[in-house]
Amino acid sequence: MKLRLLFICSLGAAQNLYQGEITFDYSGTVNGSFSSTVQDSITAGFAFNQEGTDTSYFIMAAITEQEDGGFDLFFTLLQDTTFPVQPRTWNIPGQGDLENPLSLETIVVFMPGLDSAFVTELFAVFTDTTGGDSLNLDTLLTGLFLGLSSNLYLGLAGEMEISEVTDSTLVGGFYATLIKPEIHIPPHMVMINNGGFVFSTTSLPVLTVKSKPKVPEKMMLFPAYPNPFNPVTAIRFSIETYSNGSLRIFDITGRMVESLINKPFSPGEYEIEWYAGGRPSGVYFAVLQTGNFVKSTKLVLMK
Coil, strand or helix: which one is 124? Predict the structure, then answer.
């Protein structure tokens, strides 16, 4: 049995980006606590609010590392007709066709006990865009799960509530019963209790360029590898024409923390390594600019 979640966002559609914390307790076939706060203060939860053609999507994702070295991953997708998202309670799974998960109002996925290699590959879905452009995401989630993992639980019942929305914060809570889609007798189930989330709005650096007629794009910024990383990642890009350019690193607040390169470029491919050994864990953005073109990609430093 395969589950394929394909979420294509309209080019240029409105969207909001959040960073914050997701916490809950879980019991059943597996037991534990989930918190997306690492090193006591760094939050590793992400959320996107995306306006579609006739539907608004609110997506949350987070990971946490357990004492045994395994990782837990939590993901939810809420569908609504209002953008930006407003206080509301969603039933799990809500209205829709169970045979077509993307039609459901509320998709909740919990994957406990993942190894680090699988988490690195899977979490890259949330932290990178296919074209390397985090400013205008035309594909947010592509092939989230190519097949059902033996660790995966899907939301069967419960509620997800967004209780407070302001210009800068978003707060809510949830509880859920999840079941493993694989056939088990008795069924493998997990109950999530005391679920809560607190997110703050974030924004990418504002880069001003002169207004010129639109011309074909002459550069590409590829997803960094590895990502998440510790403490070195490679950033690869290509330039098709001679131009002055720069590659800079920004933190989640939009503050530039490092300039990796700033010089004239000849046509060709380049690969620059960023050593972040002196930086705290968290979210960063690599921003490539040449002439009137700007590309950015998200980086996740996990120590």
Answer: helix
Q: Mean pLDDT score of the chain, rounded to an integer?
A: 77
122-137 pLDDT, tens digit each: 555 454 443 333 333 3
Q: CB-hemisphere CA count at 13 Å for 130?
A: 11
**Contact 43/55 with Cβ under 8 angstroms?**
no
Phi-psi region of 96 (alpha: psi -120 to 50; beta: other; left: phi over 0): left
Measured torsion, CA atoms of residues 252, 5, 100, 17, in degrees rounded to the nearest 10: 10
The mean per-residue pLDDT over the stretch 257-282 comes to 90
Residue 98: name the closest of 106, 110, 87, 89 by CA.
106
Q: How far is 195 from 59, CA to CA, in rounded Å?
A: 16
Burial 193-232 (b: 16+ CB within 10 A, else e): eebebbbebbebbeeeeeeeeeeeebbbbbbbeebbbeee
DSSP-assigned letter for residue 101:
G
Enter the tokens of residue 226: 């590895």
Summarize pLDDT for 194-210 with one digit per residue, the tens.
Answer: 999 999 887 654 444 44
Q: What is the CB neighbour count within 10 angstroms for residue 143? A: 11
End-to-end CA distance of the chain: 35
- pLDDT tens-digit series, residues 51-88: 877 778 888 988 888 777 778 889 898 988 888 899 99
Token output for 249: 């690193």
Is the pLDDT at 10 greater than 60, yes or no?
no
